[in-house]
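User: Design a sequence. Structure:
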């Protein structure tokens, strides 16, 4: 694990990289509304011709789950699998969650207004070539196995994020 975080894995250690027409987003929070914002900005960047990568870390990793897998997990990991939300549609809102009804309330408003939700935006992001990268350390902490994630998700740790961010014109955290 330490080797993933060492300066030798960051190709620009000690030198200034050339900034490219790229956008790197760190999705840290797993909230419905924050993911919605991150995806809308990412899609805007891609539509304007930027190369876009979204790194999913800590709570945001759970938004990429498509199923729950218990096989091969330790007891604590199995417990986390049961109690943690799984997938975009299971995430709460950061404010005004209304005892879990927040995403349904805002989802209904969005549908009425013709606004796509995070699940649709995530699919559109993949179709537009936006790289979806998940932190393997966060996956371990959350008890998430690669087979639980949506297809096409890449693995990339902190050094990978720093490398991309160093080359990007735009860096954001959601």
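Assistant: Done.
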């Amino acid at each position: 694990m330490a080797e993933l975080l060492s300066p030798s894995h960051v190709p620009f250690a000690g030198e200034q990289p050339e900034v490219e027409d790229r956008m790197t987003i760190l999705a840290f929070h797993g909230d419905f509304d924050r993911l919605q914002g991150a995806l809308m900005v990412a899609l805007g960047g891609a539509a304007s011709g930027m190369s876009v990568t979204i790194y999913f870390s800590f709570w945001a990793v759970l938004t990429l789950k498509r199923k729950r897998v218990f096989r091969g997990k330790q007891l604590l990991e199995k417990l986390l699998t049961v109690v943690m939300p799984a997938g975009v549609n299971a995430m709460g809102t950061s404010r005004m969650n209304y005892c879990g009804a927040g995403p349904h309330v805002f989802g209904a408003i969005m549908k009425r207004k013709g606004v796509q939700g995070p699940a649709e935006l995530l699919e559109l992001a993949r179709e537009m070539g936006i790289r979806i990268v998940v932190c393997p350390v966060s996956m371990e902490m959350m008890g998430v196995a690669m087979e639980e994630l949506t297809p096409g998700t890449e693995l990339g740790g902190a050094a990978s994020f720093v490398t991309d961010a160093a080359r990007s014109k735009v860096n954001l955290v959601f």
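The chain has a mean pLDDT of 90. The first helix runs from residue 2 to 5.
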